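Assess this one:
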Amino acid sequence: MPSDVRDLVHQKGVPQTDHTDLESVIGRLDVLYVTRIQKERFENASDYDAVKDHFSLTVKMMSHAKQKMIVMHPLPRVNEIHPDVDSDPRAAYIRQMENGMYVRMALLSLVIPPTQ
């Protein structure tokens, strides 16, 4: 998390902690927002290759999560969420994608005049 964002969150009095092991905290989460490792942000391919497969959310990990937790992801994914997680009702990213499509459609209908 960028330091300016962390500082702002701290100023607002929101507690925050850093963790390097999702499995040790997944049982305490209400929402897990997963993003992909963005290859385009790396200066060289070897740095990307060193971390690209470091994390993948699995069904086994989900077995330790709260029954009401949701998993969000902006999509498209690479391999940070195993496809078997898709069938878990807590996997909200497909609904998230669909709802986002409807919001974009509604916004476009407001800015593009209807044709006659």
